[in-house]
Write a structure and sequence with these properties.
By secondary structure, the protein is an alpha+beta fold. The protein has 17 helices and 24 strands. Helix 5 packs parallel to helix 15, helix 7 crosses helix 11 and helix 14 crosses helix 15.
């Protein structure tokens, strides 16, 4: 018999009854039932109930076992007594009567329990992550993650893509976030950077004559952490294709992402024919560029019903042509208590309040706004929004460029409070026609709004003749249930257009050559039209595992302060290491 096991802890069934077996694993739970000891033995594959009674030669050894001790158990498989089967357990029809126990590894007193799913402080969980990962739900999430990545790889290869690996040590580039820098010992005073994404390398692969690239790529950004973005590093399904249009990317990737979601949706509906929503329309209807389409609410411009009305606050605002009034429908929300609750929520968000109209039985509007604008205008608002008695509408007014994000939050809040969101689906959509540029109020300059390597719609001609803030890009995102899960674009592969695009954002040709010299040179020697995208592996896994925190689907994540509590990173280094790197520390005063 094998030194440690003849079977795993998830393998035994009726067919094994009367066999002598050997199991090894962790003592998941130990129960003393009046002299009868039950040990639930756990390994990666499952759990088996093992039993010792006072007549068992191993009873004394069993009495000294504690939670999470690692043991080898030899024994005979028998059917569980009638009425004690556990139908929720694959091994639940049998148990092992223990003949011999060998302790392979004792465990100290546990800083957090492995049995059960009770909440524990995050810092404790991360410091003792090896224990946390033994817990059933987290262990399963990690296995699901691996299966999702396998599904991605299989589907990409079925679509004719080939997997490449691109460098981890590269050059620093202004791609939107801070780089992690790595000092060079051989070249004093110079630094490598960890890649924020393999963007330039995958484009260079297209220059090199490869056609369909993909990679499960690690990416590194020195950004402040939050629940839906891990500090430091994350993974993406990175994709690039040659001789394609935007439509070709959609046709190739939509079935891949849909198929991955279907594989792990656990019965939830997955969008089959993805809608394509222009960026401006998404902002207008949903107040976000990553709309949760499970929420049926769509905002509408109702400015005309308030222009010149008796509600002077809105009427005066609308004298400025850039201002508008948007309405958020609230079907079923026509109670004073609900409307007051929404008004208080808005004040908690730093707003003066949230105007509303309620419709009573008979269709009569109620509330301060209805009283001020009169019955005829109130009825016109109701008719436009398609509302009825018992419904409400909420209003946001001003410059849409300044209030759209709050309006989107209000739409989400109304949908959640009125239970309008269908939780049993994954609602996927393409968001298209992103603006190429945006105005940076802080620096008082035009900036790239998204990926600087995207092709402007209209090409070089648009860059030369259009107001930059009106130029749209061949750029697109994938939205799912309120999250951006992918982003991509058709690339600007013409050197003169690339230089012009960066000039508009304040980078001269010298800067382009310095920062993107490899790609700029490659464009001089026959660059194919190309494009692609990158899908966030972590966010997709998070959605499919039904959690809202990326730490629940990652092996060894950092905490909110970007610290690895398990390994003690970031850590001090020795003076010798600093001398070798020609670095002297200039630390801030405490």
């Amino acid at each position: 018999m094998h030194r440690y096991r003849s079977h795993t802890c998830g393998a035994l069934r009726d067919a094994n009854i009367d066999q002598t077996v050997r199991l090894s694993g962790w003592c998941h739970r130990i129960r003393d039932h009046g002299g009868l000891l039950f040990i639930d033995l756990r390994d990666h594959y499952g759990l088996t109930q093992c039993v010792a009674d006072p007549d068992s030669p191993a009873f004394k050894d069993a009495e000294r076992l504690r939670a999470e001790w690692v043991v080898r158990i030899d024994g005979r498989v028998r059917r569980r007594p009638e009425g004690t089967d556990n139908p929720d357990l694959p091994t639940g029809a049998v148990e092992v009567f223990i003949n011999e126990i060998e302790v392979l590894g004792e465990a100290a007193e546990l800083p957090l329990p492995v049995f059960g799913d009770q909440e524990y402080p995050e810092d404790t969980r991360l410091k003792y992550r090896f224990l946390d990962l033994r817990r059933e739900k987290l262990h399963q999430n990690i296995m699901t993650r691996g299966a999702i990545v396998d599904s991605m790889r299989r589907r990409m290869k079925d679509q004719g893509f080939f997997e490449f690996q691109t460098p981890i040590l590269t050059a620093s580039s202004p791609e939107g976030a801070r780089d992690f820098l790595v000092p060079s010992r051989i070249h004093p005073g110079k630094f490598y950077a960890l890649p924020q994404a393999p963007q330039q390398y995958k484009q260079l692969l297209m220059m090199s004559g490869f056609d369909r690239y993909f990679q499960i790529a690690p990416c590194f950004r020195d950004e402040d952490p939050r629940a839906d973005r891990l500090p430091g590093e994350f993974y993406q399904l990175d994709v690039e294709m040659s001789f394609i249009t935007q439509e070709d990317v959609f046709e190739a990737m939509e079935p891949v992402i849909t198929g991955v979601f279907e594989d792990f949706a656990k019965g939830k509906k997955v969008t089959q024919k993805w809608p394509r929503i222009p960026f401006a329309e998404s902002i207008r209807k949903y107040g976000t560029d990553k709309p949760d389409l499970r929420n049926p609410l769509e905002m509408q411009d109702v400015s005309e019903h308030f222009r010149g009305s008796g509600f002077k606050v809105f009427a005066r605002m609308l004298e400025d042509t850039k201002n508008q009034v948007w309405a958020i429908p609230g079907p079923g929300g026509g109670s004073r208590a609900f409307c007051d609750r929404m008004n208080s929520w808005a004040q908690g968000e730093g707003q003066p309040g949230l105007g509303y109209i309620m419709w009573r039985e008979g269709g009569e509007g109620a509330g301060p706004l209805a009283n001020n604008i009169g019955a005829e205008r109130t009825e016109a608002v109701r008719a436009q929004l398609g509302l009825k008695a018992g419904d409400a509408a909420f209003f946001v007014a001003g410059d849409p460029a300044k209030f759209w994000k709050f309006a989107g939050l209000a739409r989400t809040k109304v949908g959640e409070e009125l239970n309008l969101i269908d939780k049993d689906q994954f609602a996927l959509a393409w968001i298209v026609d992103f603006p190429m540029y945006e105005y940076n109020e802080e620096d008082k300059k035009v900036d790239f709004s998204h990926n600087p390597f995207s092709m402007p719609q209209g090409g070089l001609d648009a860059l030369n003749t259009q107001d930059p803030l009106t130029i749209k890009a061949f750029q697109y995102d994938i939205a799912c249930n309120g999250y951006e899960i992918a982003s991509g674009g058709i690339r600007n592969h013409k050197p003169e257009a690339m230089v012009k695009a960066f000039e508009i954002a304040g980078y001269g040709e010298e800067t382009v050559i310095e920062r993107f010299g490899g790609m700029y040179r490659a464009f001089q020697y026959g660059a194919p039209p190309h494009g692609g995208m990158a899908a966030g592996v972590d966010r997709m896994v998070m959605l499919l595992c039904g959690t809202t925190n990326l730490r629940e689907i990652s092996l060894f994540p950092m905490n909110q302060r970007a610290e690895d509590l398990l390994m003690g990173a970031p850590s001090d280094v020795t003076p010798k290491q600093l001398r070798e790197l020609h670095i002297r520390l200039n630390l801030p005063e405490k």
